[in-house]
Amino acid sequence: MILSMTGYGKAVVTYKEKKINVEIKSLNSKNLDLSARIAPLYREKEMEIRQLISQRVERGKVDFSLWVEKDTLLDATPINTQLVENYYHQIKAISEQTGIEEPKGSEWYKILLRLPDVTTKTEVDVLEEEEWKYALEAIEEAVARLIAFRTQEGAALERKFNEKVDNIERLLKEIEPYEESRVPKIKERIIEGLKQIPTIDYDKNRLEQELIYYIEKLDISEERQRLTNHLNYFRETMAETAHGVGKKLGFIAQEMGREINTTGSKSNQAEMQNIVVMMKDELEQIKEQVLNVL
After folding, report:
1. What is the widest separation between alpha-carbon atoms in the chain?
2. 3-state helix, strand, coil in the chain (%, to 5)
3. In the chain, is it the N or the C terminus that has fewer CB atoms within a 10 Å radius of its CB?
4. What are the C-alpha distances in Å from 90 to residues 86, 98, 99, 183?
5. In Å, how far are 227, 233, 261, 283 from 255, measured between CA atoms?
6. pLDDT grade, residue 233 (50/70/90)?
7. Cβ atoms of 34 and 62 closer than 8 Å
8. How many other C-beta atoms can be found within 10 angstroms of the C-beta atom of residue 121?
9. Confidence class for position 202, pLDDT limits 50, 70, 90
10. How far is CA 33 from CA 28, 36, 39, 148, 293, in A?
11. DSSP designation for 54
12. Which residues are CB-contacts of 175 (< 8 A; sequence separation ≥ 6)?
């Protein structure tokens, strides 16, 4: 079973007046490339979060986000009423001492609320162990959903690969009739060419030797056998239960390409070359998608 490197997972848990949101996305990459955006309260746990993700996700360009939503009423910054009252009396005293006119009506609010520390939060958030357990639960759930997504995408990729491998195998069999008939055709074409030059005498035994040598150079039986082996190995590798088969499948696809290219270079018939082109097209689609395999 293969896994895709493309995936998405999200989880939300509620702790007291908070909503803890976790989102994780992944795309294909040669190695694990993890970027994390973590709410300030949880940054002390960043190394633990990264370790958890790296153990479960393995490869891919991964974007991780953890943020908190709070009740706006509970999260509102409180006004320090005692400090406001103190500022109010100070301003009134200054006005009486200096004769400067006091603010009027709503001007008081504009002035007092701008003064230092009137709306400043003084409490410091501390990550409690119980809250971290809730956050960790959300992280693990989001990662589990990401893996489930990757599994689903991997199954779709496997179906696609099997279809393409079957197509290449079918096209390879279509070459066989042309391969069997082309030896007599090559021999006939050469002899007919020689007949066009009646003044030339040639050694028939030597001609047979040269024909054998020439035909051996054009023989593609070894390429067909190796390509068949690669196709079977590709299927076997897809069925492996271990993770990390993406690179292995990529190497097998490269070997498949070599055999197809060699077959094309040895094909001296238009029909065979057309089949080779179709095999290359199927293989190219495999190579594009194998980059997404974990």
Report:
1. 135
2. 65, 15, 25
3. N
4. 6, 12, 14, 111
5. 8, 11, 10, 11
6. very high
7. yes
8. 10
9. low
10. 10, 10, 20, 20, 15
11. H
12. 220, 224, 263, 267, 272, 275, 276
Q: Do the Cβ atoms of 215 and 184 come closer than 8 Å? A: no
- List, in order, residues 6 or more apart from 294 with CB less than 8 Å away: 2, 3, 4, 5, 58, 59, 60, 150, 154, 243, 244, 245, 246
CA 92 to each of CA 97, 112, 225: distance values in angstroms, whole numbers, following the listed order: 9, 12, 100
Q: Report how far apart, in Å, the C-alpha atoms of 231 and of each of 58, 236, 290 are.
A: 27, 9, 14
The amino acid at 194: L
Residue 32 burial (CB < 10 Å; 0-12/13-18/19+)? Answer: middle
What is the rounded distance in angstroms from the CA atom of residue 216 to the CA atom of residue 112?
Answer: 98
Q: Say if residues 161 and 25 touch (Cβ distance below 8 Å).
A: no
pLDDT over 70 percentage in the chain:
83
